[in-house]
C-alpha cells in the first residue's frame, strides 16, 4: 500500500464531520442486499439527515464518508438529500483506494452502478492510497488508513452503533477501530443506532 494523502500534511477543519459504520450484513443480518431492504436503509438515511441538520445549525457544513457499502453510502445520500435544502453543504467521498467497488455486484443495492452514481454526485473525491498488492491484507490497511484520514480532517466523528456498546468497548471491526482512533485524537464522538431510537440527541449538544 502506497499512501497518496499523508496524515502529517492534513489538518482538522472545525466545520467538518465524518461518518463511520458497519457494512450491510452487520446492519441487517437477514438479506442485507435484497432490494426489499431499500426502504429500511431509507429510514436510516432519514435518521442521519436529522443529525446533519442539527450539526448544520451549529456551523458544520463539510461531511466526509468512506463510500463503502452500508452505513457509509447511507450517510453520503443523507447529506446529498440535505443539500437540496442547504446547497452550501459539501459532500465528500474519502475512498481508501481507486476501485474499492471492483468486487461488488454490477447492479442492485450497494452495487457498482450505485457507487458510480455516488461518485458523480460528490462535491469532491479524495483517494487515500494506491494498492501495491491485490490482497485482502493490503486492502484492509488501506481501509484503516482511510479512516485515519477522515478522522484527522474532522472535528466530529459520527458512528453507527449502540452508545452503551461504545461505552463498554463492544463496537469492533473497522467502525470500532475508527472510533478508538477518534478518541485517541480527542475528537468529539457521537454514536447512535440510527434506527427506531426514541432519544436521538445528547442533552449537552
What do you see in this structure?
The protein is of the alpha/beta class. The protein is built from seven helices and seven strands; from the N terminus they run ββααβαβαβαβααβ. Strands 1-5-4-3-2-6-7 form a seven-stranded mixed β-sheet, sandwiched between helices. Helix 2 packs across helix 3 and helix 5 runs parallel beside helix 7. The longest helix has 19 residues. The C terminus is likely disordered.
Q: Which structural class do the helices and strands define?
A: alpha/beta
Which segments are poorly predicted (pLDDT under 50) over 5 or more consecutive residues? 197-205
**Helical stretch tally:** 7
Task: Tell me the span between the first and last alpha carbons.
Answer: 39 Å
The radius of gyration computed from the alpha-carbon positions, rounded to a whole number of angstroms, is 16 Å
How do the helices and strands follow one another from N- to C-terminus? EEHHEHEHEHEHHE
Strand % is 15-25%
Which terms would index this structure?
disordered C terminus; 39% helix; alpha/beta; 7 helices; 205 residues; single chain; seven-stranded mixed sheet
Give the arrangement of secondary structure elements.
Blueprint: E1 2-3, E2 16-20, H1 24-27, H2 38-56, E3 62-65, H3 71-82, E4 90-97, H4 112-121, E5 124-130, H5 136-153, E6 156-160, H6 163-167, H7 173-184, E7 188-192
Parallel strand pairs: 2-3, 2-6, 3-4, 4-5, 6-7
Antiparallel strand pairs: 1-5
Helix pairs in contact: 2-3, 5-7
